[in-house]
Specification:
It is found in: Secreted. It comes from Temnothorax curvispinosus. The protein is of the alpha/beta class and 205 residues long. The protein has one domain: CAP (Pathogenesis-related Protein p14a). Helices cover 35% and strands 21% of the residues. Strands 1, 2, 3, 4, 5 and 6 form a 6-stranded mixed sheet that branches. Strand 4 and strand 5 form a beta hairpin. 38% of the residues are buried.
Length: 205
């Protein structure tokens, strides 16, 4: 299926779901419009953007941030992705308290954006580059140590973290509108990040 065909199918699905309320979802009171995991192309975008930004930090190219010789390259982890997708499909507004795996503790970044404007054929697609950059841009508030206003950034660039898995869903929320829901899990996470909690941000468009 080409990208054009896929987007046309998504548009038809959105119309059908809203007209007959026939989409299965674990989101109580909401209508799921897209779920089912991340494509190979999206996985590569997510990894490339994480590693590009982490490399900038590692090389000392971010103003006010020291270089990081121990910065590891991120690789995709299917278990973390499956857990992230499960949580994205729940449309939950909190963090997943059951995200840890037997191998290690898991950090988590969550974000949502929504609009009341009815979506067109392309509007259900995630914009991973924009979202990951938004997390990273918290660096402007970072000084040293962990704080909740820089939790996304801290998790994204944690040097010992090298496994990544993300999930995405797109759904209609009668209270807010058409919602893009991003979830990324990171492992292994620092105990400091787990102690204070990972972060969530919300965008309204």
């Amino acid at each position: 299926m080409t990208l054009t065909e896929r987007n046309a199918s998504l548009f038809l699905l959105i119309v059908t779901c809203l007209l007959v309320n026939h989409c299965q979802t674990s989101c109580i009171g909401k209508t799921m419009l897209r779920s089912g995991g991340i494509s190979c192309e999206e996985k590569q975008i997510i990894l490339d953007e994480h590693n590009r930004l982490r490399q900038l930090v590692a090389l000392g190219q971010i103003h006010g941030q020291p270089g990081a010789a121990n910065m590891m390259e991120m690789i995709w982890d299917d278990e973390l992705a499956a857990i992230a997708q499960r949580w994205a499909d729940h449309c939950a507004e909190s963090h997943d308290s059951l995200r840890n795996v037997r191998r290690f503790a898991v950090g988590q970044n969550i974000a949502r954006s929504w609009t009341t404007r009815p979506p067109g054929p392309y509007d259900g697609e995630p914009n991973w580059r924009r979202q990951i950059s938004g997390w990273f841009n918290e660096v402007q508030y970072y000084h040293s140590g962990y704080s909740k206003i820089t939790g996304h950034y801290t998790q994204l660039v944690w040097g010992d973290t090298f496994l990544l898995g993300c999930g995405y869903s797109f759904y209609y929320d009668p209270a807010r509108g058409y919602t893009k829901n991003y979830v990324c899990n990171y492992g292994p996470s620092s105990w400091k990040l787990l102690l204070f909690g990972s972060s969530m941000c919300i965008w309204i468009i």
